[in-house]
Amino acid sequence: MKRIAFFCFAILSIVFLNAQTLDELAAVRKGNTAYQQAEKLRSEAMQLIEKGGEMNTRTANEKFKEAAKLYQDAEISYRKGMATTKNFSKANYNLANSLYRQEKYEDAGNSFKYVAEQKENDKSLRAKAYHNYGNSLLKQEKYKESIDNYKNALKLNPNDKETKYNLEYARKKLQQQQQQQQNQDNKDNKDNQDKKDQQQQQQQQNQENKDKQDKKDQQQQQQPKQQQQQDKRQLDALQQNERQTQKKVAEEEMKKGGKAKQEKDW
User: Fold this and answer.
1) What whole-number distance in Å separates Cα of residue 10 and Cα of residue 234?
2) Which of 57, 89, 128, 177 is most buried (CB neighbours < 10 A)?
3) Domain total in the chain
């Protein structure tokens, strides 16, 4: 992030005086003071982190907390400084910086965008605003949009090495994002196909099970009829044998010429 804020102290242009109320000017100055103090604390904390060590880390964390509170105070003051004069670009730019430091990247980006698109602003300010708008988008992983804004910044300031570096970095991140998305799409497609194949196999297995059960049910339904038919055939055979036996006995008696002699029961 370009750490450049436009601080308003003793000397103010006539146009600025006409544009801002005294209360707004006082609020902007208060915001500038809070922002400067926060930046100083943040820089000291970063240096302590680089040195390393438990004590340095603890002290750095305390400084980060103090800086975070000052960034919030600066935000409040800048908003008061634009209570009636919403289009004050320098206050908007400083507000965006304080929002960015609080990791409110979407809100910061909106303020940077406003400043960048005001063509009456000088090119240097607009270039910085486009650059930081690109940074805000980069933090949100909106790489394509950040690339567009870095390009806009370079149109206004072609020799800005920091913007060129961020542009290339955003391009690499975009390629990685697209590759990850492609890999995820391929994985999703494979998962969907595997799920579809599994569903088809399950449907086929269910149909086979149903066919087996239907066949079994049909066999069970046919079994009583088959048993009845078998019993009937057996009964018919017994009756047929009995008739044949009776017929044979009758024929034997006829051959003997009369009734058979019966023994008396004494």
Assistant:
1) 126
2) 128
3) 1
Q: Is the pLDDT of residue 15 over 70?
A: no
- Structural domain contains residue 136: no
Report the half-sphere exposure of 170 (CA within 13 A, side-chain side).
26
pLDDT of the residue at 116: 97
Residue with tokens 């929002």: 99
Q: Domain range holding 33?
A: 1-102
Judge whether 57 lies within some domain: yes
Q: Is the dihedral of CA 56, 57, 60, 61 positive or negative?
A: negative
Q: Which two tokens stand for residue 56?
A: 């340095």
CA dist., res. 30 & res. 18, Å (int): 19
Question: For the chain, where are the alpha helices, taking DSSP H only?
Answer: 14-19, 22-51, 54-81, 89-101, 105-117, 123-139, 143-156, 161-256
Is residue 14 predicted with pLDDT exceeding 50?
no
What string of DSSP letters covers 138-207?
HHTT-HHHHHHHHHHHHHH-TT-HHHHHHHHHHHHHHHHHHHHHHHHHHHHHHHHHHHHHHHHHHHHHHH
Q: Are 42 and 63 in contact (CB under 8 A)?
A: yes
**Which has more confidence, 243 or 79?**
79
Q: Is residue 55 included in any domain, yes or no? A: yes
* First-last CA distance in the chain: 140
Task: Tell me whether residue 21 is in a domain.
Answer: yes
What is the total residue count of the chain? 266
- Which band of pLDDT confidence, cut at 50, 70 and 90, is reported for residue 258? low
Distance between CA atoms of 150 and 132, rounded to whole angstroms?
A: 9
Distance CA 246, CA 249 (A): 5
